[in-house]
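Sample A.
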Amino acid sequence: QAQIMEFGGGSVQPGGSLSLSCTVSGYDLKYSVVGWFRQAPGKEREGVACISLDRATLSDSVKGRFTISEDVTQNMVYLQMTMLKPEDTAVYYCVADHNWWITSADSMCRKTGTDFGTWGQGTQVVVSS
């Protein structure tokens, strides 16, 4: 049974850094696409960073500040967040799907809603002074 778990959220001041981790069970990352999405209060869930076989895509709002990476041997996906801004405050979710359903990282990050893949429960990130 597929299971996704996120770790590493917390509170940080503007300009600070946080790292999120996602454990992916039930998927082989060699044949999967994994993404980090976030949802701020009152806003739609949006794709932030997605990766498939080391090909990554980042939303314009986080380019140059966030990095997504994966360890295929450990079935882990990471999101390194730097130069955090108050507008990065959100619940961050990790999602995985097979790459025969979602064929690229870019395709995943452009998806809306939650009717795809397997989702984690989310981890809160608060950026505030």
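Sample B, a different protein:
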Amino acid sequence: QVQLVESGGGLVQAGGSLRLSCAASESIFSFRSMGWYRQAPGKERELVAEIISHSITNYEESVKGRFTISRDNAKNTVYLQMNSLKPQDTAVYYCNFRRIVGNYWGQGTQVTVSS
């Protein structure tokens, strides 16, 4: 069973930055997609950013130009650099790794952006 451990959430003022990390318990080479989702209170979980087939990146429209997803193969870790944060970015952020057999979620990390 793959374990995903997230870190880096917290409280930040609008315009600030945070970097989320998601460390996997095994090599990330086998995963076809690695991404970040978020869920705000009363809303459905939504995709924020993802890396597909190790090189293709996709972003939710509202975070384009502000968030960057990246990976460090040597550390088995995926990052989400979040800049120019807005109050509407407030949510619990979850990492998600998928492969042909297996869909894995982190425990979630809270990001709160104050105005």
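Observation for Sample B: The first strand starts at residue 4 and ends at 7.
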